[in-house]
Fold each of these.
Amino acid sequence: MRASTFRRLLNLWPPFLCNSIRVLSLDEGYTEARVVLRLRPWNRNYVRAQFGGNLFAMTDPFWMLLILHHLGEDHYVWDKAGAIDFVAPGRTDVYAHFKLEPGVLDELRKAAAEGEKVLRWFEVHIKTAQGEVIAIVRKQIYVRLKPRERPNAARQPVASEA
């Protein structure tokens, strides 16, 4: 699917649409994404700052989606764990920029090549338009070759072979 089409679909996804989360850009190579969380009356917390759940939600799927697009149908790619460190109150719109660095995908493929699970942490900073860090979100991604692709996996007989 073209990245521009996928970006439009994400922007219509109810958890994003209803919480004023918008994907601003997704490059055609699926290596970079930019996301904004607009501050609205319905997504503020009691002290009029960005609600922490929305800060986490704006970052939730992106590392997994970017990696999954590249590793494709041969691999399982899942979110395994996540953590958020609130640095300052977000009293304006906030932004996150995800960028897969060159070589990361090759490292993941190589580490998963023998069929073992791979766990890797990725980090993104949520910032204001002026560059002030509001929160740091870490996501642990699980990668593993699917059983049919693993070397040394015993071949299961097909019903017609029995």
Amino acid sequence: MHLAYVTTTDRGATDRLLSAVAERLLAKGARLAGVVQTNTECADSSKCDMDLRVLPDGETIRISQSLGSQSRGCRLDPAALEQAVGHVTASLADRPQLLIVNKFGKHEADGRGFRHVIGEALALDIPVLVGVNGLNRDKFVDFTDGAAQALEPDLEAIEAWFDSVAKLRPAAE
């Protein structure tokens, strides 16, 4: 089982890092599945719009919803998230070299979102790279039974991990 995660502390840094990882690996010809997130600041709010790009070259799905300027609740659109989950689940049949999941967030911590996809990929011997925030790290460690490898939040370190894992796996048919 090849499961790794990265954690950063700056707002949006994990999203930017995983997007850069995906771009670099795709440029090298790697076969990827999963999602990376882009955050777009909203001019009239301290909030941002959140979009998931389905890898390798799938559609972009907006997973945030506008709840109004006075809202304090979670802006995640669960239906949009599940749409992305469906696309990624279907892509596992192509036997990618790596599954990237932008975040093990509250939905995953509660047993929803990409949690099942992560398990399915591991069962298929597909390596998985996950972004994990500090709020959900303990639940992620519980979910993985401590088997996930923490990587430095560094593009070269992640690429080196991927290269070492790719060498251990037989070529996909």
